Structures are given as structure tokens and as C-alpha cells.
Automatic annotation (TrEMBL):
Belongs to the purine permeases (TC 2.A.7.14) family. The keyword Membrane applies. It is found in: Membrane. This is Probable purine permease. It comes from the Eukaryota. GO terms for cellular component: membrane. Its main location: membrane. The gene is LOC111490450. Keywords: Membrane, Transmembrane, Transmembrane helix, Transport. It comes from Cucurbita maxima. It is a multi-pass membrane protein.
Length: 396
């Protein structure tokens, strides 16, 4: 993301620029290989980013919709809803068979000091526990809020991520980033004034004081807190890749997902049994409105969806930055509310429409800043290439 202060791990296209020039002093012969080397890695990198983006958006949208379906059709266990969003990591184990590309000699310094086992354990355990708490808070919010309201409030996580990135990842605030954060903050704040406090699964009426209390608890105390926690986890994950893990392989991405999932799943599993919700599990299955098979399939595909989301999210952190990963997540904002209106008959009133427009506007503002950063970065690479060619051609 250029010079906006975000962490960027070295990419393959940057590494290839360090290839020593041949003894041929012809500027044409030197310039042509450089262009071919630069074009191919850029293509691969953007293809990889495209795949990560698709996984993040599809996993996030489907996972959120299925999570709401679970509560809407009779599911009541917050711990189980959280557990299924984390415990699907075994499906990713076959991906370890994918061989990572060899690290070039120009990047030996990044690999020269591998992290100790103690440091890795501390990183995985601390981040895993944060993920567990964060996912539980999201489940509480999703249980009490309409899915469209829930999704729009989650847009605030981009603002929280930018704040944490400023202190943790040395993010530099530009006018477009500030504009994006202000718009997203206003978008989330508007939803406090909407009139549909809770979902239809609540036994209390919309005007009931208890119902309103659940709404405030589910939205402000849980969903916003979960958004802040998610922003913190992304920034810390980015910091861990740079300062501790120091690897540029797909295996590093998988390790981060798998080990965090093991820790967070274990913590939620303990909470599931400690809360006693497991005792009513059979009754919940029997009472699920869509039947036992649909109950199991809902949980199964929820688990799959969130694992796809994890691959996309961590992959974008690894390849670009935590703020970029979060911004792509904000791109999915218009998707979930529209699906919620279609499948769950959520009300799309004027406040929600305004909130959605502001959220999309905020993402576009951030996306334009990223476009400017890429242009500036590409200009610097071209200038460096021309200088290298000039120096090489001037050699005797």
C-alpha cells in the first residue's frame, strides 16, 4: 500500500528486481528482461489477491447468513454458534501439501533469525484467545440483532483497525483514509436510532423494556466491542508476521490459521461445556424448525464458510496489510443486508439505506487511497529500474 505507513511484506515482484544484471551493457537487453520479470510476478500477485478476496467475501457473507439462520430457526446456543465458526480448520490440513516457492537469495536476511518456540507459542495462544473472545461477542450480537443491522455495525471494525494500525503498524493517516473512517463511524452510529430493536426470535415485543435492553447489550456492548477486537486482532496478526514469524510462504499463512483455530476452539469448547448448554443440545436439534438434517447441514456449512473467510483474511494480511484485508471485508457490506431482506425479510428502512450508502462511500474512499498508493509505488519501481539501467549502460 505504498507509503501510507502500512506494513508490506516483500513480494515476489520486488524480489526479482534484485537480480544482478548480466555483463551485457546494452540498455535494451537489460531493460527487456526486467520488464518481463516485473510483469509476471505482478500478474501472479494480483491473481492471488483476487482469490483471497473472493474467499473472504463469500465466506463472510455465507457464514453470517447461516449464523443468523441458526438462531432464526430455533438455535439458542451462543457457545455452539461460536464453536462452529472456529472448529472447521481440519479441512485446511490437506493444503499443507501445496509446496511454497523457494525463497530467493535476496531475502535471506528475512529468514536468518527464525523465531523461538516460546515466541511462537505466545503469539498463537494470545491471538487465539483474542479470536475466541471476539467470535463469542459476534455470536451474541448476531443472536439479538437483525442480520442487516449486524452487518452494517460491523463496518466500524475498519475504523478500529485503522486506529490500532496507527499505533501498532505505523499507519499514516491521509485525507482519504480519514474521510473513510468518519463515514464508516457515522454509518454505524446511525443504526442506534433505528426502530427495529431485536429479531423475531425474541419472546418479548419490540417495545418491551427487556427487549430494548437486549438490543442495547447486543449492539453496543457486544457487536461494537467485537468489531474493535477484530480490528485489534488484524493489526496484531500483521505485526506478528513482520516481527516474529518472518516468513513469506503459504505455510506461514496456514500455520497462523490452524494454530489460532486450535487455541480458540479449545477455549470455546471449554466454555460450551462449562455453561451447560450441551445438556439442551438434543432438545435443540429436535426442535429446529427445518429438521435435524438441516440443523446439521447449517452448522457444517457455517464451519466451512468461516474457514474460507479465514484463509482469505489472513492471506490478504500476509500479502498486503491488515487494513486492506479489513477494507475488503467492508466491501461485502451491501451483500449481506440485501440477502437479509430477501431471505429473512429484514426491514430496509431509510436509516439502513443511508447507513449502507455511507459505508460503501467509506470503502470507496479507502480504495481510492490504495489506488494512489499503488501508482506511487509503481512509479518508484520504474524510476529505480531506469536508474539501474542507466548505471549499467554507463559501465565500461
Amino acid at each position: 500500500m505504498g507509503n501510507n505507513g502500512e506494513l508490506r511484506l516483500p513480494f515476489e515482484d520486488e524480489k526479482t528486481m534484485n537480480v544482478n544484471p548480466t555483463n551485457d551493457t546494452s540498455s535494451m537487453n537489460l531493460d527487456q528482461p526486467r520488464r518481463s520479470l516485473q510483469t509476471k510476478p505482478n500478474y501472479k500477485r494480483w491473481l492471488r489477491i483476487g482469490v483471497y478476496t473472493f474467499l473472504l467475501l463469500s465466506g463472510q457473507s455465507v457464514g453470517t447468513m447461516l449464523g443468523r439462520l441458526y438462531f432464526d430457526k430455533g438455535g439458542k446456543s451462543k457457545w455452539l454458534a461460536t464453536l462452529v465458526s472456529l472448529i472447521g480448520f481440519p479441512i485446511l490440513l490437506p493444503l499443507y501439501m501445496i509446496k511454497s516457492p523457494k525463497i530467493s537469495s535476496s531475502n535471506i536476511t528475512l529468514q536468518s533469525n527464525p523465531p523461538t518456540t516460546t515466541k511462537l507459542i505466545f503469539v498463537y495462544v494470545s491471538l487465539g484467545l483474542l479470536v475466541a473472545i471476539n467470535c463469542f461477542l459476534y455470536s451474541v450480537g448476531l443472536m439479538y440483532l437483525h442480520v442487516s443491522t449486524f452487518s452494517l455495525i460491523c463496518a466500524s471494525q475498519l475504523a478500529f483497525n485503522a486506529l490500532f494500525s496507527y499505533f501498532i503498524n505505523s499507519l499514516v493517516f491521509t485525507p482519504f483514509i480519514v474521510n473513510s473512517l468518519v463515514l464508516l463511524t457515522i454509518s454505524s452510529s446511525l443504526l442506534v436510532f433505528q426502530s427495529d430493536p431485536v429479531s423475531d426470535t425474541s419472546s418479548d415485543g419490540p417495545g418491551h423494556p427487556t427487549s430494548r435492553a437486549k438490543f442495547i447489550t447486543g449492539k453496543v456492548s457486544c457487536t461494537v466491542a467485537a468489531s474493535a477486537g477484530y480490528g485489534l486482532v488484524l493489526s496484531l496478526t500483521q505485526l506478528a508476521f513482520k516481527k516474529v514469524i518472518k516468513k513469506e510462504t503459504f505455510k506461514a499463512v496456514l500455520d497462523m490459521i490452524i494454530y489460532l483455530s486450535i487455541v480458540s476452539s479449545s477455549a470455546i469448547l471449554i466454555g460450551f461445556f462449562a455453561s451447560g448448554e450441551w445438556k439442551t443440545l438434543k432438545m435443540e436439534i429436535d426442535g429446529f424448525h427445518l429438521g435435524k438434517v438441516s440443523y446439521k447441514m447449517t452448522l457444517f456449512w457455517t464451519a466451512i464458510s468461516w474457514q474460507l473467510f479465514s484463509v482469505g483474511s489472513v492471506g490478504l494480511i500476509f500479502d498486503v496489510s491488515s487494513l486492506f484485508s479489513n477494507a475488503i471485508g467492508a466491501l461485502g457490506l451491501p451483500i449481506v443486508p440485501v440477502f437479509a431482506v430477501i431471505f429473512f425479510h429484514d426491514k430496509m428502512d431509510g436509516i439502513k439505506i443511508v447507513a449502507m450508502i455511507l459505508a460503501v462511500w467509506g470503502f470507496v474512499s479507502y480504495g481510492y487511497q490504495n489506488y494512489l498508493d499503488d501508482l506511487k509505488s509503481s512509479s518508484k519501481v520504474k524510476n529505480r529500474d531506469s536508474n539501474d539501467v542507466s548505471r549499467s549502460s554507463s559501465l565500461p
